[in-house]
Structure formats: C-alpha cells, structure tokens
Amino acid sequence: MRRKIANLFFSIFFLGSYQRRAVGGTLGVLLGILPIGHIAWIIGLILCLIFRLNILAVYVGIITSLLFPLIVVAAHWLGLESLFSSPDSIVLDILLGLFFLSLCYLVFRWVYKDVHKRELLNDEKMFVFHDLGRRWMFLKRTILILFVLSLVTLTVFGISLYDHPVVTPLIQASPPDPSIQPINQKINSSNSREPSFPVFVSQEKQKDFTTYAFYVPWDSKGWFDLNSLGRIKDIDVLIPEWYSLNSDLSIDIKREENVDQLAKKHRVQIFPRINNVVDGNWDESVVHQMLISPQKRTDLIKQLHQDVKKHRYAGINIYFDKLRPKDKRLLTKFMKELVLVFHRDGLKVIQSVPPR
C-alpha cells in the first residue's frame, strides 16, 4: 500500500514527457479561465491524480491564465465584437479562449521540449542530477518568456498613460422633496400616532433628466464603452452617426447592427444623425445643392423617413456644419418640411447647431 501511494505521489511530481507537461499546463490554463474561482486548484489536483499529470505544470498553467484578460481587452480594443451579429454573444469569448489555449500549449511545448542535448564524451561519467544541458535550455526559455511578458506589461502601462480614462459618469443630486417636513414635536411614548418616515425612492425614479450619448463608427472604443463597460444602461437617447450626404445627394449609411440591437435591448431611443461630411471634410456645397432644389429636399426627406421607419428609430438628428450664410433661410425651410413629415408619424426631430 505504501509503495502504491509513493508511486502515485512520485508520478504527479515526475517531469514526464514534454507532451504530457504541455497538456498539463494547458489544462491548468483552461481551469484558470473558467469561472470557478479557487476551486480550480482542487480540481487540478484531482485531475492530476486521475490522469497522472504533472501537478507543477498544471499549477503553472492556472497562474498563466491570469494573462487571459489581456487577450480579451485587446480584442475589444481592436473592435472584433463588431464582427458578430449579437452584441451579447459568447462566440467571441469562446474563440478567444480556444486561441489562448492553443497559444499556451505551443508555448508550454516549446519550453518543456528537451532539445540540444549534449552527448557525453568517452571519458565523461554520468553523475547524479546530470541533465545533459536541459536545465540551462529550460532556464533560458523561461527567462525569455518572462522578458516578453514584462515587455507586454510595460507596453500596456505606457498605452494606459495616454489613453482616455474611463470614469463613472456623475449623477446629479435630486432636489429635496418638499413633501418631507421636519418634526416640530418630540417623539415619546405618549404620542398616539407613530411618526412617519419618508419612503425610499429608487435612483431611477429620482432621475428627472435625460441622458444623451453620441456614437461614431470610426472610434473603436465606443462599442467597448457601450457594451463591455455597460454604459448603455446609463443612456436614455443614443445619437449614432449613421448617415452622411454624398456628392450626388444620396445617403451613405454606416450603420452598425450590433449597436442598434444593444440599444433596443435596453430600450434606449435611437436618433440617427445625418451630416455633410464628404471624404473626411465638411462639404457646404452638397448641402447647398440639396437646399436650393425643392425636389431634392423632398427626395432626401423621403429617404430619411423610410429608413427611420424601417428600423423603428425614435426620430432623426440633423447636423449640417460649415454652411453658407445665404443658405440659413433655406435650411429653416428644409427643417419645417422635415418636421411636418416626421411628426405625422409620431417621429421626433433633433437639430444639432454647431458652436460659433
């Protein structure tokens, strides 16, 4: 019995082949990224006893799993979530997990692999703990990995110094309730009626203001703030920049379906914005061509009205900048025509005025 226990204890600490050590390390990474907390260490020990894996390799893998959040943050920073239709889909997380496990397996296999073995000469003898150069190779690879991880950590830290910090939005304090009056008399046991205390009102009921948020497709951080950081829950009205006028007065649509789905899921009103940005610059001529022609004004209003109704938006946001001074009256006329069509179907119109 003692021999069996000794063999079992020796097997889980024995180095074994580099393939089994790599598998053990990858198993530890899998246990580490699963949402099971500290139980991963216990499950890792049990699996080592069952499959005779190297317990040290498994525990190193669990520690290595602490790097997985860096992979997730990098994916959000690159905007990979926009490639999937559902904003709350776990497909991206699964793919990132498989990628991280594959990468860890290759790294563990490379670290543990016994290469560059030094052969003994005829006059050399095999000593106890003689490893034929394996320890030095293992040490060099470990130092190289630690150097790469340190470099990545310093890079992330350097980027964070120049990145825009994400802070919790300030919530305005609600005005005092005038119905709450101070108690003018002392409270004692002789009072026939117990004093009434103000009823707690939740923060959502106290909110007496509307929160607007703007979303631009070219900022990859916008989707990360809305979805991953949960900023969509603090928004009442979302104004995404979906439309822009082309030089031929057609509408260039840059809609992101995942943003629309996320906003509708949280019951956030959507007011898509249309601007006059052509090739990255404000183009006053394209707005002028539209304003001077009654037919072109009607066509543009019709296109906007159809698209807003089709996607069940709450209304439209108009933002034309760098206009010619003589086009201001025509712009007012265009807005009246637009409001008449949209209000007929219960749709709202918001006009953004550039600062002067």
TrEMBL record:
Keyword annotations from UniProtKB, A to Z: Membrane, Transmembrane, Transmembrane helix
Regions crossing the membrane: 29-51, 58-78, 90-112, 143-162
GH18 domain: residues covered: 209-356
N-terminal signal peptide: none
PROSITE patterns: GH18_2
GO BP field: carbohydrate metabolic process
Gene3D superfamilies: Glycosidases
Domain of life, source organism: Bacteria
Stated name of the protein: GH18 domain-containing protein
Protein source organism: Paenactinomyces guangxiensis
Source lineage: Bacteria, Bacillati, Bacillota, Bacilli, Bacillales
